[in-house]
Design a protein that fits this description.
By secondary structure, the protein is an alpha/beta fold. The chain has 11 helices and 12 strands. It has a single domain, classed as Aldolase class I (TIM Barrel, Alpha-Beta Barrel), CATH 3.20.20. 48% of the residues are buried. It binds ligand PBG. Ligand PBG binds next to α6.
Length: 325
């Protein structure tokens, strides 16, 4: 027996006011973190070809971006560095005078209330483009841990509010926690990219950060997109090792993963709406094939509905403008 006509779901969709009253998922500028790519120089804003509207920024310009983001109600930025020189050990990652360290100091000086998150990985700093130390074609796990820990401590010293390891080496959260505590940064939280898939959606990022691997790929450390039980294992391990917050990446291809993690743990969950997701929306919008504004808000709302507490997205400023309108 159909409950119609007693039940009419359309009653609750009749006006904007009713729809707002019964809306189950909220999206606000306060949920968003803006990624920034930082390089050397002054007054530099180099547009990234595959990410129109996103730039490689010198430290002064990155600080200006952070100010703009703050004015829009965005609580934080996450920094990625493009060093002048790369080497086999990725030493730019743990250089106290590196671009990310300098940008962190400048942003904390100009906008002290703005959260500065820093990406902890070697791939932007190694000449071979891999996330760790290599031996031939192999990416070595344990020898990489000390370097990641050094990078995290160097970033914390520069004033980073949260460090975010994205390398996917086993045991990195524990190594970083230990090093931070040893250096007096026991109050600095770790946001672990706990569930990071070996995804083709990172393509434009690798152009932006000039971090494409020179040989091989990242499948020996990043996860197989076919797996979700493994995602829960990664989350459990990272929380046991001392992660304070966990992240799932990419976002839209992983809504089910975000949901599964949400149901399993009480830790805050972030989702990374990555470069390829941004590029697809921008490209289709440029062709007039989709309504850009609505697709942006629908995408971010879906990620929140899946269970993410906050979202790292290149659309942060744009979404904040749309939400404040
Ligand atoms: C690695 C890192 C990557 C991204 C964030 N951190 C690239 C990779 O793993 O190849 C991708 C982010 C994006 O695509 O927007 N440091």
């Amino acid at each position: 027996m159909s409950p119609f006509p007693a039940e009419r779901p359309r009653r609750l969709r009749r006006t904007a006011a009713i729809r707002a009253l019964v809306r189950e998922t909220s999206l606000a500028p306060g949920d968003l973190i803006a990624p920034l790519f930082v390089r050397s120089g002054r007054g530099v804003r180099q547009e990234i070809a595959s990410m129109p509207g996103q730039f490689n920024l010198s430290v002064d310009e990155a600080a200006a971006e952070a100010e703009e983001a703050q004015a829009l109600g965005i609580p934080g930025v996450i920094l990625f560095g493009i060093p002048d020189a790369k080497d086999a050990q990725g030493s730019g990652a743990y250089d106290d005078d590196g671009v990310v360290q300098r940008a962190t100091r400048e942003i904390k000086k100009r906008t002290p209330g703005m959260l500065v998150l820093t990406d902890v990985c070697l791939c932007e700093y190694t000449d071979h483009g891999h996330c760790g130390v290599v031996d031939g074609e192999a990416i070595l796990n344990d020898p990489t841990l000390a370097l990641l820990a050094r990078a995290a401590v160097s970033q914390a010293k520069a004033g980073a509010d949260i460090v975010a390891p994205s390398d996917m080496m086993d045991g990195r959260v524990r190594a970083i926690r230990k090093a931070l505590d040893g250096a007096g940064f026991d109050d600095t939280p770790i946001l672990s990219y706990a569930v990071k898939y070996a995804s083709a959606f990172y393509g434009p990022f690798r152009e932006a950060a000039q971090s494409a691997p020179q040989f091989g790929d990242r499948r020996s450390h990043q996860m197989d997109p076919a797996n979700v039980r493994e995602a829960l294992r990664e989350v459990r391990l990272d929380l046991e090792e001392g992660a304070d917050l966990v992240m799932v990446k990419p976002a839209l291809p992983c809504l089910d993963v975000i949901r599964r993690v949400r149901e399993r743990v009480s830790a805050p969950i972030g989702a990374y709406h990555v470069s390829g997701e941004y590029a697809m929306i921008e490209a289709a919008a440029r062709n007039g094939w989709i309504d850009r504004d609505r697709v942006i808000l629908e995408s971010l709302t879906a990620i929140r509905r899946a269970g993410a507490d906050f979202i790292l997205t290149y659309h942060a400023k744009e979404a904040a403008r749309l939400l404040l309108r």
